[in-house]
Write a structure and sequence with these properties.
- This protein has 13 helices and nine strands.
- The protein is α/β, with parallel strands linked by helices and 302 residues long.
- The chain is elongated, with a radius of gyration of 21 Å.
């Protein structure tokens, strides 16, 4: 569906655009622009983007991935926080893919604060996420837009490992459990440093998330389950009996909740599935103080 063979951006195009806009990628916003057309096409293929998809992209930057998505998807909505980049992207799309420009929309906003998107609801999320906010942005988008069925994000390799980690892994933690609340999560490949400008000093990885066809079966709310997850990993070296004492009201109350959930009080958070965390939340002792800090301030990253 590409308009011309050179519709996508190459290294010279990226540098030319950046120079014209006076843009220098900033560490503060975790900006590393993809300069390789083969890489963005690979991302679109790996994301299983389909002709009927409405894709939301977070952090489009100069538009490398945006153009590759527009080649395939029915519609692309890009969320960009940077004033200069947000201002320039529609013109880039119009210049390089004029007959697809009406299928593109830009939302100039911080993705963490986006509550709605223009047009039909999104069916897919594909993004090169800034390393410093990758997990909170991912979780926010999955929670806010339940119509997103398939997600593919490019993140720092270590973050990719944490998101896709299974119980018992050394890197299994808050991001692993919370991502699994929404979706089946797996590593979907590695990305070399040379396809970015500037080249980052860390490796990157692709993570695929396919939303659960049916929500987790539990009587506990997402917030209640996430409160247990946060408490369990806040002191991950401690047994759950000790780590959940504050959440339950006392160590004895935590033990009662764990036993009722069929979980050993001597276990640690890194050994539990999201289903087990949900069972613990269901068995929280009643009569404890409400509005605990862990419930009011969820953490996305650990």
């Amino acid at each position: 569906m590409s308009n011309t063979p050179d519709a996508l951006l190459g290294p010279a195009d990226i540098r030319e655009l950046a120079a014209a806009l006076g843009v220098r990628p900033t560490k503060q916003r975790g900006q590393n622009f993809v300069i390789d057309a083969n890489t963005v096409r690979r991302i679109v293929r790996t994301a299983d983007v389909r002709p009927e998809d409405v894709v939301v992209e977070v952090g489009p930057g100069l538009g490398s991935l945006t153009l590759a998505l527009l080649e395939v998807a029915d519609r692309v909505v890009a969320v960009e926080i940077d004033d200069v980049l947000a201002g320039a992207l529609p013109a880039t799309v119009a210049a390089r893919m004029p007959d697809r420009a009406d299928r593109f929309a830009l939302v100039h906003s911080d993705a963490m604060h986006v509550a709605e998107l223009p047009g039909p609801p999104p069916t897919a999320l594909v993004a090169n996420l800034p390393y410093n906010v990758a997990v909170p942005v991912l979780l926010h988008m999955l929670e806010t837009f339940p119509t997103i069925e398939r997600t593919l994000v490019m993140v720092q390799s270590e973050v990719a490992d944490r998101l896709a980690a299974a119980p018992g892994s050394k890197v299994y933690g808050v991001p692993s459990v919370k991502a699994n609340w929404y979706a089946e999560v797996k590593r979907a490949g590695a990305i070399g440093r040379t396809v970015f400008w500037p080249a980052p000093n860390v490796d990157s990885g692709l993570v695929s998330l396919v939303r659960r066809t049916e929500p987790l079966k539990t009587t506990a709310s997402r917030r209640e389950v996430f409160a247990v997850v946060d408490a369990a990993f806040a002191q991950r070296r401690k047994t759950l009996r000790a780590a959940l004492a504050g959440w339950a009201g006392s160590a004895a109350a935590a033990e009662s909740a764990l036993v009722a959930a069929g979980v050993s009080p001597q276990a640690r958070g890194e050994a539990l599935t999201v289903e087990e965390f949900a069972r613990i939340a269901e068995n929280r002792p009643t009569g404890n103080a409400e509005n605990r800090p862990a419930e009011n301030k969820e953490r996305g990253e650990q």
